[in-house]
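Practice problem: PPR domain-containing protein
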Amino acid sequence: MIQIHRSSVAALPWFGFSNRRLSLCSMFIGFTVPTAKVPSILHVKHSYTNCGQSLPDSKAAGKKMIKKVGKREHHLWKKRDAAGSGQKALNLVRIISGLPNEKEAVYRALDKWTAWEAEFPLIAAAKALRILRKRSQWRRVIQVAKWMLGKGQGTTMATYDTLLLAFDMDQRVDEAESLWNMILHTHTRSISKRLFSRMTSLYDHHNMPEKIIEVFADMEELVVRPDEDTVRRMAHAFQKLGLEEKRKLFLKRYQCKWKYIHFKGERVRVRRDVWDGE
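Answer key — structure tokens:
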């Protein structure tokens, strides 16, 4: 132990004490400081009160008081969980594939498939439709799609397109026309170009040029521009009906000015009017 006297305290300015603290400390002439504690004073990171008590650093205290809160995400809609929807879809396809071709039996099985669901399994049903479409099981596609629409589910352009294709492939043109008229009256301004193309293709497959012209009239009324395949089918319909002048006017307005040809093994883009003129 060492003795710190008045003169020795005044001679230690490097301790970091202010004049006021030196004057207070000088009152304790007989105060003893352990030798092991003297070097640690040089590394002290805390402030001292008038009585020599230490206070924690304000920054350190602030860091201790800060509580990290996890990031919260807010959504305007809640995404339905798609986990297991693929297995549900395969299970549905397996169930209805083994049933007889009777509407009541199929609908009964579909109702049983959704009996224990808290909400309608729309994702699984849509996947089942895609599977049936890939397998060309058109009657099953029609049954599942009609059942969904009857439940008020799946009223989307994709479902309508799949159902129209199934009607086309199963030779059920009358039902396709009924569905198409319902779509025209219900969705009017939101009908996609894809559906117009589907109906044009359906009427072309069944050699109904008058109906193709009707579809074209609906497209013009709703200001929907036909794609290249639809333009070709409609021009062919005008030609079948002997409306050559209208066909030329139609092609002039809607046919693309460019086309692609194969020249010396390469695909080349050329102007249609120049190439056809030659």
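Discussion: Confidence is low (pLDDT under 50) at residues 4-18, 20-52, 75-79. Students who identified this feature from the tokens alone can consider the problem solved.
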